[in-house]
Each structure stands twice: as structure tokens, then as C-alpha cells.
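Morning F.,

Quick status update on the modeling queue. The single chain you submitted on Monday has been processed. Sequence for confirmation:
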Amino acid sequence: MSLISFDLGLKCDANRSFIDQDAPPLPHMDAPPTDWTPYNDQAEFEMAEFLFMCNQMSAKQINTLLYLWAAILIKHNDTPPFANHRDMYATIDATPLSDTPWKSFMMSYNGVRPKQDVPPWMAQYNVWYRDSLQMDVIAQNEENHGSTFVPLIIGSNKTVVSVTTGQTEYHPLYLSIGNIHNSVRRAHRNSVVLIGFLSIPKSMKEHNNNVKYRNFRRQLFQCSLAKIFESVKPFMETFDVTCFLDGHFRQTVHSLGPYIADYPEQLILSGIMQNWCPRCLANRKDLDGTQPCLHRHEAHTELLIEQLTYKQAWYEHGIIANVIISCLLKLTKSNLSCPLC
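C-alpha cells below.
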């Protein structure tokens, strides 16, 4: 029996027991073509799609349209497909796109607030997401032998999303896996999925250099990611059972793989100062030096934080120690319970 597969592991049933590898998958039951749940019919679905996706009509204009529609239909003892914009939004939210529904959690600044003129960034933020589900450590567990290893590739985009989100600004968060062949990835065949919207703290220009605001912005980003990938953590060292697109169940072990981000986001992710390298230990004054340089490592960063003062970590190594301690280390030691929640 092979160890962990980077392609497809051994087939199993829903109860985690391996089965005959030549057995056909269980029959898939597709919904009938007349089933438009939660919409009453195809016309109602296409109306919601037109208003929400194509026209991107505002809630106020949707209400006006449905009011006029109702006035026309009342003499026929009929009603429009939706009572108002809230009814339409609720129907859209109930649309079964897949087995992973959208969820949300709230984060807020929990420090001391001024009694007057509270900065706008000290607000509450909704983060929307879908559950996303050390190679040597995994292979040491014999129960994982025969499993499919699924590294998660994560990326975020600083493009601001505000349409149809109540004018709240978000950064989209994307997910792919390392098992997809390059031919599929290059063909853009749905190899990347949207799994979340990361909130952007509201601020004004005078707050940009405020230390509390900048630390809160970093913590909000990091803690949101920790919460979103909370469901993956139990299956990084032991397997989960997943139904693949071929209809077969397989044991899968997950791992956080590369994070694709531009330089500003790399700094927020790593807790590193501007003008320092988030990947290596090169001094910011000699980034192009010819001497070999070691990569940053979690254990080394934690050791520096334990041995140095915050000021030394900042100026000598470019590490924002108070952010890493208050967010990253606490999340690890408290089972991902965010100090901002």
C-alpha cells in the first residue's frame, strides 16, 4: 500500500473503510429539470438573476419596481414573484449552490475607545466565508496511509468589493488546491473558488499612521483567516472523508500551502515591517546583498520575540512583536479563539 498520494488516494466508503478499487461509484441523484427550489419557477429565478447579477439594481429601486408590478397585477388577483428586496435577497441566500453554504462572524476593536469622536475604524465588522476544508508528520500516522494529500492554495485580492454588499468594502479571498493539473488550471476551468470576503477597516487619512489602527488592521486580517480555516485544522494530521467528483469517497488530509499575495499583504500576513523582506532574514538596508541569507521560520520568530524587547525585534529584525503575540500565538494556544471577537 502506498503512502500519501499527491494525485488520488484509495477509494473508501462514507464510513472510512477502504473498498474494492474497481468498484463503480454510487449512483448520483440529480434534481429534475423542473425543480427550481427555492424559486417557484424558472421565470422567478431569472428575474432574481437579472435584478441582482445583471442589472445590479439597488434595494430601493427593486422595491419601487415590485410595488408598480403589484399595482398592475392586483386586478388579476395575482402578485409579483417577490414582496420586496428583502424577500428577494432571502430567496437568493437560500439558493442551494453547493454543500458549503455561506457563513459569517463578527469582529470588533475591543480596546479602549475615546469618549468623544470615536474613530470609524473602531467599529464592528462582518466577515463572510465558506468552509474550506507537514508532510512528514502526516506520514508518521499509519492511519493516513492511502489518503489523498490536498494542499490548499490561498490568495486574496486588494480589489475592493462594494456592489450588493451594502456599500461595505471587502477584500475577496480565493482558494484552489495543489492537486489540479496545470492544463485545467491554465484553461480557467473553475479551478479557483471564492471562499470569503475580508473586511476592510473604515478609516480616514489622519488615522493611517495611528499605531492602534495599524495593529488592529493587521489583527483583523490575520484573525479572520484563522477563523475561516478553523475547520481545516483537525484534518491536517489525520484524515477526513470527502466525496470526489467521480462519485467515490476518499480519505483526505489537508495542509495550508502557498498564499498568493502582493507585498503589502505579505507584510500583514507575516507581521513584518515595511521595507523588510517577509520571507528572509536580510536586513532592510542590504536586501540585495551578495551574502546568503536564511529564510524566516516560525520557531525562529517566536524565539526572537521571547528573547528580545519589542523595540529590538522591530528595529533589528523588522518583526512587529506585539501583533504576533496578541494574535498569532494566542490563536494557536487557544484553539483559534480570536481575541477580537
